[in-house]
Amino acid sequence: MIFFSAPVASASATSDEYGWNFTVIDTDGNAGGYCSVAFSPVTHNPVISYTEIVSKDLRVAWYDGSQWNINRDIAKNASYNDISFNSTGYPAIVFYSDTPEITLRLTGAKNFEWESSQNWDESIINPKVGTTKPSIVYNNSDIPFVSYFNSANKISYAYSINEIWQNFEISSSSGGSKYSSIALNPLTGYPAIVYLYPQSDQKIYYREYDGENWKSDKISYNSSNIGFGCSLAFNSDGYPGVSYVKNTGDLYYAWHNGISWNYILVDDVGSDSKERPYPYTSLDYNNSDCPGISYYDRRDGTNGDLKFATCNFEKVGDPSAWEIENVFFEADSGLYNDFGFDPETDLPYIAFYREDGENLNYGSLYFAMKGKTPEPDFNAIVYPVSSNMTVSFSDMTYSQTFAENYLWNFGDNSSYSGKNPPAHKYPCAGIYTVSLNVSNRFGESYCEKEITVPTFSNISVNKTSGTAPLHVMFSDKSIGVPDTWNLSFGDGSFYNTSDIFSDDGMGITHVYENPGNYTVSLSTEKNGIFNETVYEKFIVAEAYVNETGGNGNEDDGDGEDETGGNGNEDDSSENSNNNFKSSGSYYGNAPNKLYNVRCSPYLSSACSSNLKKGDIFSFYINTGFMRKFSAAFGEDVSNVMFEVSKVDFARDLFKEPLGPVYGYGAVHMSGAPESSVVALSASFEVSKNWLSDVSMTENDVTFLMYVLENKTWVELPVEFEGCDDEFCSYTVRIPKISYYAVSARKNTKHMPKNTMDLKDVLI
């Protein structure tokens, strides 16, 4: 028979070393008679209908992607049969039943769970027929068409609409035959039938429906007794082809070229010394319109062999161009066979019967597949993520048919089963041997590669710019568990260590004494694998300018506008709180006194000049959890800058767990001594969604300060201010400038009211 799944382009093979592989599907009794194979349009897996020759039980075997399964109870008293699928994946089998009388029947699946015997419905197509092989195909409207010979030995066809069968005679001539084959023309969608009339002119006929009538055509006019075991198929251009056997034991292939029929001798298949039907042939076209034929070669007169012939479509008329393979030659194999090209892989698959004893008392259903084992290959991409070195693996295996099993070994005592594993995290840098084992229905193959997982050199700093001398804290953020670090500060100074990259648990501080742009680099090593990251012009140390001038317009040589935007305007009010949001030159509270303020662009910053004892300097923040920061000064200061930044900490810095952490932050002060600040306070917010996620309430929020001297976190009392739809607000009194964290745990301490009135604590 033939298959009508839409053609699917197949990958080009990397070599021509294909081999036939075999699976024994059913050995129960004398299984495998009158076998027929089709491919599901949904799963693209093969399904076989066949009979147990002695009991005449109709059976179905199907491949589920990993193994064969059998249903041995589809119907009773069956012999000849043929299987086909409709477009939604429902199979149907047409068969002859000889008990209690000879009838032509169809059993069809009711739903997608057709593997169960209870999910098939049986109907009678014609109650009076001869015992011959029927053939079935679905048209584009999912109407089944069946060809057969009726009780008057006339070629007939039937179709079903609304489960009611209509039967028609195609020809008025009688004669009877055991062979007919039906197929659909892919261009017109109409059926065509090929059949043999051995009792009339003993020639093979072809009839095709044109929408109104059946047109008749003889395939061969000069020969007789031809057409045994015939099989019909169409190529993609809508031209029919037929395989058949002549009574002299010759296998022929006939094709129509759009004008006339042509035919050629393909192979001598001999004569059969046993009294049984002529063997079947099976024809199909691959995606390149090359014909393939499976057939039974019985030349030795005792045991026959299953064979397969194929030819390039441009050379079908050249006998020497046909390639003939002996597929299976053990025992007597292939009397019943059916073949098709896999719609996904374009590889030939054959279902066939192997006779294992005399008098047909024992046999087995076999399945032959032509293909090769997979050629495993994979690609690996290494990238850092979080605190790990992660490798993304992607499968690049070549396989003519779907690979069914994948087993990865990542070289670190871990493995994964599946086509594309999730990104794999390695514990540290190193060289790992990764292997991939892949199998398909033809066998399994193995490949391995060495992959290098390096360290990833990374740093963080508390600031990237400021006025020289500039104090910058460097913290290590490297990934891959390095053994050594080599940090170049860019000013001729280096820091080399084989311990953790830190001198106090927080980082190391380096002072840039002179103005300039400094390129920083960090090199790390693990297991002999080195990695270096270079930060071009990473640190900018600026010159501090403090000029005096008569009117503020004097050029100090740095190319900047020293007027600060207000020209010669006197800004001399007592106790003024001058908050400047950007670098520049500004007038202070004394005539002709110019203050040069340098504000860092690092996250959030604020700067001020001319602060008096008792002044409170406050600014608002739009990064992290802090929203407002206030400082009260106990002495006069001429210039001050505060910087607030978000910070990431490793949890191993803590001596005790903090519980869930909402966020970390740091406040840095420059331009004035920290001793000039006598009181600090902050306002901060916490997301209500976060509190819900960690199963805490607004009363469980804590504020913690990191004490560098003993490397511990100290909890500070907070005051709850209230909540809106998204956030809860708090205030906190801070004893000193440091690193901070917002956390949550039960039984927190709370501070008294009016904590923002910092003047109350001034001396």
TrEMBL record:
SMART domains linked: PKD
List the biased-composition ranges (Acidic residues): 553-573
Residue ranges, annotated region (Disordered): 548-582
Question: Sorted alphabetically, which Pfam families does this protein's record hold?
Answer: PKD_4
InterPro entries linked to this entry: Ig-like_fold, PGF_pre_PGF, PKD/Chitinase_dom, PKD_dom, PKD_dom_sf
Signal peptide range equals: none
The residues covered by the PKD domain are: 374-453, 455-523
Read off the PROSITE patterns from this record.
Answer: PKD
NCBIfam families linked: PGF_pre_PGF
Q: What is this protein called?
A: PKD domain-containing protein
Source organism lineage?
Archaea, Methanobacteriati, Methanobacteriota, Stenosarchaea group, Methanomicrobia
